[in-house]
Design a protein that fits this description.
The chain has 740 residues and is mostly beta strands. Strand 40 and strand 41 form a beta hairpin.
């Protein structure tokens, strides 16, 4: 049971300090990239509406309500006619709101004037081919009268026997006369009549994959016909949107499964004009898990963001040569795709475009691509090899992260930068050559990979934090002697001056003595190391963030007197560490500095320390006692949480604030005194301290600074706020506290 509780504690703390490789973080450096709001439900006069927006980076959706719009009536005409329309005046009726529960009405609903009811007087003159006709008519409903005119008829030409009549395609000549009047025409050329086509008739009906045909016949000469293509329909049920009056973009419509064929052209009805389908819209086929294959026509030039994301049943897709851009997350989580060829026409591949395509074993990137965007192929765990084309100059952050089966990779000479997490957790990647043009290697670039050795060329000017973190097989880092910024000594990475130790390969075992030239230990320098003994020289004055995290074989370490601060997570998860000496010069213990040091039984905090950071000693399961000096003014959030064996602790008078969860789940703690100086206690500060039976309050804490009922077990908060300063006790496991 105890082991289970420990595991639970670890899970909780991992949630607190876990290092995320997701694209979006809610902080000031990388916020969501929200698209425009899209109304999903319109607000009316009686009900609220809603709209939503999606992050173009990670796909998260955000929904908000739209307030009731008191003027958004659904006005409908009623049967109540207030004025009847006539042929001389408009009428009008009553409008009422059709929304249930709304009683709004208004005068409106114009009724158009009626047409005159004409009665034609006798004696009208019929039109001829020389004169128009005319007559009189009057309206039976009003006094309107008018003379109407009927246009002249055309001549009914009769061609002489020697004449050549015009046709729909040729001119005529010779003499012709009208039998209805004296009109005649001598010689000359008579214009082409032109075709008079009948309606189009389908002769070959198009199918999903094949074109059809339709034709029309000239009424003047049935030997004259025209035909035109009826383009293949594609899968029935797809939805098309007309863009810029020139082309269509396609989405899934009502199609949910099977083999999908996108047509080259589309028209909305049988008489409309065909326009090409040139793009696959954002989220067009997202979450269509029943799709097995998709045929994209050559007319398509762009594939939108999230277009095929989560199409987990999709086994094959061919990207045609016309496509120039592939959007972000376009094929993300298409787990059944095994291979894909990106054509030479593609110049841009969006971030996360093929991320989490776990079934993908091979992919061809064309020479037209010049940069590989961040997380483009991340988590393609089945990918065994890939060729990066020579035109690529940058490899984005996380581009191939967690491609665990990737065993070979050639970085072309044109690459100048390798992004953060670019090859992180590529556990099958044992060797890689960094070309001479690379100038920067990002944070975590090769962390967790299977590399056994690495050579840094002379061109590199920047190596990010934790670039080789947790490379358990890495035994050697070699820096080219001509490099002006970095150096290597005894297989370890330093800055050029050998004053900062930057990275010790995790595969180096046994012991190591840091050279006396070193004054600072860089962030993550020993992280995940298999070393059992490390000697830090007196020259060292600073220890960077996570410098010794996960050094599980380390049992003891001495921090020299010149050190004044211990960085964030500096010794986190050093589970074998049983003792450590913190020198008097240290004034602050950073967040999570000793979190997870489960073997640590006791520790003395020196008198100069003023603050104990968030989670500093959390999950130190075997810690039984600790002395906090009078110099400390604040105890951070989770500072001693999950210290199961901690039975007693003295909080000095100097402390003014105790953070949330500071001592939560300290099962062995039986009593505690809150000194007079404490002005605030955070939520859950002593939550689940199940053995706590005595608490003494030496001072006054306001309700606002002691707001959570869960700060202590049971009803202690309420009893203190009512009873004030004093000692409160309870029976073992009880929930009711009594003031002594």
């Amino acid at each position: 049971m105890r082991n289970f509780v420990k595991l639970l504690g670890i899970i909780v703390l991992v949630g607190i300090i876990g290092f995320s490789v997701s694209t979006c973080k809610e902080d000031d450096t990388h916020a969501h990239i929200w698209r425009d709001w899209v109304v999903t439900v319109n607000a009316t006069c009686v009900s609220i509406g809603s709209h939503e927006r999606i992050c173009g980076d990670c796909g998260e959706k955000q929904t908000e309500a739209i307030a009731i719009n008191s003027t958004a009536h659904d006005k409908q005409s009623t049967a109540n006619i207030l004025k009847t329309a006539t042929c001389t005046e408009e009428g009008f009726g009553e409008l009422a709101c059709a929304n249930s529960g709304c009683r709004y009405t208004e005068t409106g609903g114009i009724i158009p004037m009626l047409d005159h009811k004409w009665e034609y007087a006798p004696g009208a003159t019929e039109p001829t081919c020389t004169e128009p006709g005319s007559g009189q008519r009057n309206c039976v409903d009003c006094e309107e009268e008018e003379t109407y005119i009927v246009e002249m008829l055309e001549h009914a030409w009769v061609y002489d026997s020697n004449a050549v009549p015009p046709t729909c395609t040729t001119t005529g000549s010779g003499q012709r006369s009208c039998p209805d009047c004296p009109a005649t025409e001598q010689g000359g050329t008579y214009p082409v009549l032109g075709h008079e086509y009948d309606d189009w008739i389908i002769t070959i009906r198009p199918t999903v994959t094949t074109d059809g045909m339709e034709e029309c016949v000239c009424n003047r000469d049935n030997n004259h016909k025209e035909s035109r293509i009826l383009y293949a329909t594609g899968t029935i049920g797809l939805e098309f949107s007309f863009i810029n009056d020139r082309y269509y973009t396609v989405s899934k419509g009502t199609v949910t499964s099977g083999d999908v064929i996108i047509p080259v052209y589309y028209r909305p009805d049988n008489t409309g004009t065909y326009f090409p389908v040139t793009s696959i819209g954002n989220e067009a086929f997202r979450d269509c898990t029943g799709f097995t294959s998709i045929t994209i026509p050559d007319s398509v030039t762009s594939i939108g963001d999230w277009a095929f994301a989560y199409c987990e049943g999709l086994t094959s897709i061919t990207i045609p040569n016309g496509v120039r851009s592939i959007g972000s997350f376009a094929f993300s989580v298409c787990t059944s795709l095994s291979s894909i060829v990106i054509p030479d026409s593609v110049t841009s591949i969006g971030h996360n475009a093929f991320s989490s395509c776990s079934g993908l074993t091979s992919i061809t990137i064309p020479d037209s691509v010049t940069s590989i965007s961040y997380w483009a192929f991340a988590y393609c765990e089945g990918l065994t090899s890939i060729t990066i084309p020579n035109g690529v100059t940058s490899i984005g952050g996380g581009a191939f992260s967690s491609c665990r089966s990737l065993t070979s990779l050639t970085i072309p000479n044109g690459v100048t930068s390798i992004g953060y997490y670019a090859f992180a957790y590529c556990e099958g990647l044992t060797s890689i050559t960094i070309p001479n043009n690379v100038t920067s290697i990002g944070d975590y670039a090769f962390s967790g990979s299977g590399l056994t050795s690495i050579t840094i060329p002379n061109s590199v000017t920047s190596i990010g934090d934790w670039a080789f973190l947790n490379c358990s097989s890495l035994t050697s880092i070699t820096v080219d002697a001509g490099n002006k910024n970095y150096a290597s000594q005894d297989r370890v990475l330093y800055n050029k001056a050998l004053s900062t130790i930057l990275s010790v390969p995790s595969g180096i075992k046994g012991s190591i003595a840091i050279p006396a030239s070193v004054t600072s230990i860089g962030g993550g320098a020993f992280s995940g190391s298999g070393l059992t003994s490390i000697t830090i020289p007196n020259s060292v004055t600073s220890i960077g963030d996570r410098a010794f995290e996960y050094c599980k074989g380390l049992t003891s370490i001495t921090i020299p007197n010149g050190v004044t601060s211990i960085g964030w997570g500096a010794f986190s998860s050093c589970s074998g560490l049983t003792s450590i000496t913190i020198p008097d010069g240290v004034t602050s213990i950073g967040d999570y500095a000793f979190i997870g040091c489960s073997g640590l039984t006791s520790i003395t905090i020196p008198d100069n320390v003023t603050s104990i950071g968030r989670g500093a000693f959390s999950n130190c399961y075997d810690l039984t006692s600790i002395t906090i000096p009078n110099s400390v003014t604040s105890i951070g959030v989770y500072a001693f949480s999950y210290c199961y064996d901690l039975t007693s602790i003295t909080i000095p008078d100097s402390v003014t604030s105790i953070g949330s969860f500071a001592f939560s789940d300290c099962y062995g703690l039986t009593s505690i005194t809150i000194p007079n100086g404490v002005r605030s206690i955070g939520d859950f500060a002593f939550y689940n301290c199940r053995s706590l039976t005595s608490v003494t309050f030496m001072g006054t804490i306001s309700t606002g600074n002691f707001s959570s009922s869960y700060t202590f077990p049971g009803d202690l908060r309420d009893k203190y706020l009512a009873g004030g300063i004093g000692t409160y006790t309870r029976g073992a496991g009880g929930s009711v506290w009594t003031k002594m």
